[in-house]
C-alpha cells in the first residue's frame, strides 16, 4: 500500500476549508522553505542544450498531466521563445560534474511587436492592463521533475524566486501574468497572492483544459506579502523568502540579458521559422 504523506493530507484538508479559515492556517500548512539546497542550482538557460532540455522537460510533464498531446517531436516551444528578451530559468541537480534538469519556467516580456501567449484567449483582459500603461511579463511553460519535488515546496518556490528577481530587478515590470489550471488556483491566490482576471472553459493551447488568467501586481506585491505573512513563522514565511533574503542556490546575471544571436537562430529553426 502506498504511503500517504502528512503534507498531502494537510493540503487536502486545507483546500476543503472556507477561505477565511484557510488564510489563518498558513503557518500550519505551508511547509518549511529552504533558501539553499545541496546540489541544487537555479540560473538562466544559456546554451542550446539548456533550451532543448527545458523544452523536453515541459513536453514530458505536460503530456503526463494532459496539458498537451504526444507528438513526433518531444519539445514544447512557443513562438515567443524566439524573442531576444524572453528568458528561461532552469533548476539543476548537480553532482559528480553532471547536471540534471529538474525545473524550468519561461518569461515573455510584452511588446508592441510581439504578443503574449495569453493573447490567444485573454487579450481583452491583458489589453485592459495595457491601457493603464502597465508593462506585462507573462510567465509560463512551467514544469518540475516529479522525482525531485521532495514532498515540499522549496524547489518550485526557488523557481518563483529567481523569476521574481529577474522580472522585478532587470525588467522593471508592472505585472506578472500567467495562465493556470483551476485546480492550482488555491496555491496562486492563497500563497503566491495572485488575483484572477479571467477564465475560459477550454484553452486550446492547453489541450482543451479549462484555464484561469492570473495577475500579480509587482508595484504592490511586497507590501501585500508583508501584510499577508505578518504573523507567519520565519521558517515558512514567503515575505522573507522572496524579499528579505538571498539564496546561494540562485545565480543571476548582474543585469538584463538577451538571447545570443546564434542561439536565437537555432530557436527559430527549431520552431520552424526561416533562419
Describe this structure in words.
With 275 residues, the protein is α+β, with helices and mostly antiparallel strands. The protein has a single domain, classed as Aminopeptidase (3-Layer(aba) Sandwich), CATH 3.40.630. 37% of the residues lie in helices and 21% in strands. The protein has helices spanning 6-16, 19-24, 26-29, 48-65, 119-130, 154-171, 185-191, 221-228, 238-243, 261-271, and strands at 40-44, 87-95, 98-109, 136-144, 175-180, 195-203, 209-217.
Quaternary state, please?
A: single chain
State the major sheet: 7 strands, mixed
CATH topology title? Aminopeptidase
Under the CATH scheme, the architecture is 3-Layer(aba) Sandwich
